[in-house]
Amino acid sequence: MSDPLPRSAPIPVLALLVATMALVALGRSRVRPPPVVRSVPVPSPTKAAVALREGGTIDLNASSAEELQLLPRIGPALSARIVAARPFASLEDLTRVRGIGARTLERLRPRLSPIVPSEPRPGVPGGEASRLREGGPPATKMPRREPP
């Protein structure tokens, strides 16, 4: 009996198999173009951010809620409560904000500008700062929360 395939037949089949696998591997490792990176405009830093970075201070009565969040341990909720409790006649008035005690005030004091009493306005005797010190209501009507 004679074999229809000579004994050397497995070698060409094996070579064909290896060549096919190499082509598949090359097809998967195509060089892909780099992903498109879109530039996002970076907002310029505010005066308060620059001041804090350079070791300066920020004004408690004039800074926005976002600027107040640059202070250590002040997040979005606490900055909103600070803005709602304005105006402050002195830095010590900051302790009337829920979440800020004497210890937090002492940590923040080096980063806060001293509060200058406001000038008397026409029709308002003594100005805003003196009215607050005398126990009068703030210039803006804010609902006060009674402690539980």
Task: Report on this structure.
The protein has 148 residues and is mainly alpha-helical. It contains six helices and no strands. The chain has helices spanning 10-28, 47-53, 65-68, 76-84, 102-108, 127-133. The radius of gyration is 36 Å and the shape is rod-shaped. The N and C termini lie far apart (106 Å).
Provide tags for this entry.
single chain, 148 residues, 6 helices
Write the layout of secondary structure elements.
Blueprint: H1 10-28, H2 47-53, H3 65-68, H4 76-84, H5 102-108, H6 127-133
What's this entry about, in short?
With 148 residues, this protein is an all-alpha fold. Helix content is 36%, strand content 0%.
**Percent range of helical residues:** 25-40%
- The ordered H/E elements are HHHHHH
Report the major sheet: none
Rg from C-alpha positions?
36 Å
Distance separating the two termini: 106 Å
Mean pLDDT: 76
Which regions contain 5 or more consecutive residues with pLDDT less than 50?
Answer: 124-134
* Helical run tally: 6
How many strand elements?
0
Given the helix and strand composition, which structural class is it?
mainly alpha
**Strand content of the residues, in percent?**
under 5%
Tell me the overall shape.
rod-shaped
